[in-house]
Amino acid sequence: MGWESSDYNHEGWVAAVAPDGRLSASSNGTGMFVHGTTGDYEPAGEFYPDQEIVPHDLIMSWRGACTCGWQGELWQRVPTVADADVATRKEYAPIGEIADVSGEVEEAVREEWLVHIAPSEAIRGVEAAAKEHRQAGHRLDKTVAAAKAAGASWTDIGRAARISRQAAHERWADK
Ligand SMILES: [Zn+2]
Fold first, then answer.
1. Is the pLDDT of residue 25 over 90?
2. What spacing in Å lies between the alpha carbon of 65 and ligand 1's midpoint?
3. pLDDT of 132 over the 70 cut
4. How far apart are the CA of 114 and the centre of ligand 1, in A?
5. C-beta separation of 20 from 12 below 8 A
6. Coil, strand or helix: which one is 44?
7. pLDDT averaged over the chain?
8. Span from the CA of 127 to the centroid of ligand 1 (angstroms)
9. Where are the domains of the chain?
10. How far is the CA of 22 from the centre of ligand 1 (A)?
């Protein structure tokens, strides 16, 4: 597996796609592990009773995947190096070897996944700022109470807080 979001709600990776569309999250020398048992492929063994192994040579495409269910664009497997082209999502992986994508394609898929998680990453900034805002509000209430106890007027407090005397009174008089 691959990349994790800051809130750990998303984990993305480059998934090999089985001929029947199932996505793989891991592999061994024989092939790619896919969830589910259709009987079309070899069972993955006693430790993975609900998985099958799709031989590497049968992998015809890849796509980004995320634990939240998101899936990226399809990358087609092509038969020769000359046919490979990042711009049109064509990738070469030699027959007879593990059906993995190149580092360049992995990076392209990761970029796509980063766009997918961008909203949730940005929301974290809002969460942090809102928390600071709440804490600052509590601090303001405390310092106003202390100022009032020390004999400051609502006019003084309003001026310090950059609001009117009336607004200061309405906000803090009952606290
Ligand atoms: Zn996700």
1. no
2. 8
3. yes
4. 9
5. no
6. coil
7. 95
8. 19
9. 3-122, 128-172
10. 17
For 108, half-sphere exposure in the C-beta direction (CA atoms, 13 angstrom radius) is: 17
175 has a pLDDT exceeding 90: no
Q: pLDDT of 155-169, one tens digit each? A: 999 999 999 999 999
- Residue 1 CA to ligand 1 centre (angstroms): 13
| C-alpha atoms less than 13 angstroms from C-alpha of 78 in its C-beta half-sphere | 14
DSSP 4-34: E-TTSS-EEEEEEE-TTS-BEEEE-SSEEEE
**CB distance 44 to 53 below 8 Å:** yes
In the predicted structure, residue 99 carries a pLDDT above the cut 80? yes
Split at pLDDT 50, 70, 90, the class of 1 is low
Structure tokens at 173: 């008089």
- Taking ligand 1, which is a single-atom ion, which protein residues have CB atoms under 5 Å away? 10, 66, 68, 70
- The SS3 of residue 120 is helix
